[in-house]
Specification:
The chain is 25% helix and 19% strand. By secondary structure, it is an alpha/beta fold.
Length: 238
């Protein structure tokens, strides 16, 4: 996740409840294209992650259902270059705006639909990289009100993307924090998370999503639970 401030209950994806409308865009560059089979595979992974989140929500009596809309009929949207994802904290956070402009829209708000309670733009990029979320944060320019998720086809040539990786990024736009060590999460925070919540989806991902859990901190951050004791120990460091 690219994070610099408080992302709780702001933007187009406030709490993970109700109908969540995701606008899907498949993006490639001048030398690449998503094939029909590749697009189908990524959508299947997305749906597996969504079903897992829906099932988890039912355990908390939270109404939740995802409604995906693919634009351009699933065809590729072409950019001159695709931004990198290297977990640096300096990833391209203007991509929702860039795609809106490329599609001839006046602003990112043009992606918003009428009915969903929560919304975001989910961008499948035809290259390798570490996927990331673009959440809105308190006090940030309205350009970022429409939140985004950047999903790469694979991490590298031998490591494909996975359903739990996608669910992890969805949770970020609803306020969830990383629990593994990053440029903004300390080794001490990760050690404590491993001790308390070793199977949290915000600590690690897995190609078997059913072995993962939503921990109490994440449950609070996405609006399902009350704040646990000492939750702010895990707050990311700007």
């Amino acid at each position: 996740m690219v994070w610099a401030g408080e992302t709780y209950n702001v933007g187009s994806a406030k709490k993970l409840e109700g109908t969540v409308g995701l606008t899907l865009i498949f993006v490639s560059d001048a030398t690449s294209d998503w094939t029909v089979a590749e697009r189908r595979e990524m959508r299947q992974k997305l749906r597996t992650g969504e079903r897992w989140l829906e099932a988890y929500a039912r355990e908390y009596s939270i109404p939740l259902n995802f409604r995906n809309k693919v634009i351009l009929g699933g065809r590729n949207l072409k950019l001159a270059r695709l931004p990198a994802g290297i977990r640096s904290g300096h990833e391209d956070v203007t991509l929702v705006s860039t795609l809106a402009q490329t599609l001839g829209k006046d602003s990112p708000q043009a992606f918003l639909r009428t009915r969903p309670d929560q919304q975001a733009v989910l961008m499948f990029l035809k290259r390798d990289g570490a996927s990331y979320a673009i959440p809105q944060e308190q006090g940030l320019d309205s350009q970022y009100d429409v939140e985004g998720i950047v999903l790469y086809q694979a991490f590298d040539s031998t490591t494909p993307n996975c359903a739990s990786c996608i669910a992890h990024e969805i949770l970020h736009i609803f306020g969830a924090w990383d629990l593994y060590a990053t440029f903004q999460t300390t080794v001490e925070q990760e050690k404590q998370a491993k001790r308390l919540h070793p199977n949290s989806i915000m600590l690690r991902t897995s190609y078997d999503i059913e072995e993962l859990t939503i921990d109490p901190i994440t449950c609070w951050r996405i609006g399902w639970c009350t704040q646990p004791d000492q939750a702010y120990f895990f707050q990311p460091q700007p």
